[in-house]
TrEMBL record:
Record InterPro entries: Amidase, Amidase_CS, Amidase_dom, AS_sf, GatA
Described function: Allows the formation of correctly charged Gln-tRNA(Gln) through the transamidation of misacylated Glu-tRNA(Gln) in organisms which lack glutaminyl-tRNA synthetase. The reaction takes place in the presence of glutamine and ATP through an activated gamma-phospho-Glu-tRNA(Gln).
Gene3D superfamilies assigned: Amidase signature (AS) domain
Entry superkingdom: Bacteria
Lineage, top ranks: Bacteria, Bacillati, Actinomycetota, Actinomycetes, Propionibacteriales
Originating organism: Kribbella antiqua
Single GO MF annotation: ATP binding
Protein name, as recorded: Glutamyl-tRNA(Gln) amidotransferase subunit A
GO CC entries: glutamyl-tRNA(Gln) amidotransferase complex
Pfam family, one: Amidase
Subunit structure: Heterotrimer of A, B and C subunits.
Keyword Transmembrane part of the UniProt annotation: no
Amino acid sequence: AHLDRIAAVDDSVRAFLHVDSEGALAQAAAIDAKRAAGEKLGPLAGVPLALKDVLTQEGVPTTAGSKILEGWKPPYDATVVKRLKAAGIVILGKTNMDEFAMGSSTENSAYGTTHNPWDLNRIPGGSGGGSSAALAAYEAPLAIGTDTGGSIRQPGAFTGTVGVKPTYGGTSRYGLIALASSLDTPGPCARTTLDAALLHEAIAGYDPMDSTSINQPVPAVVEAARRGDVTGLRVGVVKELGGEGYQPGVEARFHEAVELLTKLGAEVVEVSCPHFQYALPAYYLILPSEASSNLAKFDAMRYGLRVGDDGINSAEKVMNLTREAGFGDEVKRRIMLGTHALSSGYYDAYYGQAQKVRTLIQRDFANAYEQVDVLVSPATPTTAFPIGDRADDPIAMYKNDLCTIPVNLAGNAAASFPCGLADEDNLPVGFHVMAPVMRDELLYTVGAALE
Ligand code: GLN
């Protein structure tokens, strides 16, 4: 049924880069056979899922939205993918994204923009716009995203779906094509809080293949999503994430949701996080620095594309030509920024300074969590914007991530839950919840209460 739905609507939504009909039907048939034989099935046996094209799946084309990986078929499954398969999940295909997860709209994909199912003239958010659009268009009931600076939560907010960024290290990065290794976090996307929790439980947990994986039990996310009891929960509204520059309809829905939490028994206070205002500039130094280093491996020798390999050019020239042709503008912009920020003579002034700011932001969180259990804000300053609106203005695009980025710098858990439609444009608004490291269950408590 989901493959039929994809065939019917994806020409206009364009959530998928690759639909693996054959593979999906084979997985489904294998599950049927197991069931017929009376064998034990995984906890989510037969549930279809859309996979962001930044995670490797053995033998299935994987591009990370880039021309430089065109034609590459990974020889192994990412840990997340291995766990999906073990849970019995059927993977429908790979979803569109901004190239190497750099962007907030999917307009930076080398394979065209995904359209927001709520209004096809608008972007679905990014970088994981394909995954969230697939959910909103009923092409899949579950999806996987990755969140480095908001790429699960912001598309979740723009498409009226649930997007959860687990604690950094709570889900494995093994087999995730790296953007910024100290920030990247795979996580669940779904249409309901409980669905997201069930998927969260299936993919999370310690992985010896990832050196930053946390060796602790997975937080009790499913139980929290089932109960949704906020009685006595201390909720902090972040003073700095609201006001000027925020769309009135976004703020209205956000404050209504806060009132609802109060009515349900939560204790709401205002909390100040004074260094959050520096999160965006710190992020746009740390991320390009790590990205420029991570992307050095695309050297024309190992993966996908190779240009100028005619026996005349040197290896260096082939590398230059391939990177010139294979990377898009935003990727080149960040490689240059990052290389500059890391270069000798500038390292302390840029990268070093940004790391200090990162520590101050972590302290803001630590101080806040002495007073409250969770922090809340709108997930984004505005609703989904029209395609093309910000494509030529990187700074305007970066501002999308004002609310989501502080969490990534601190490594905490966070999520966006739908909280209604803005009055101005009837587009979905996301309610952003942030929780301390390895307290991911608190997100689901709030999400379930709001549902
Ligand atoms: N908009 C952010 C960026 O462009 C999102 C990154 C992400 O979470 N992958 O860096």
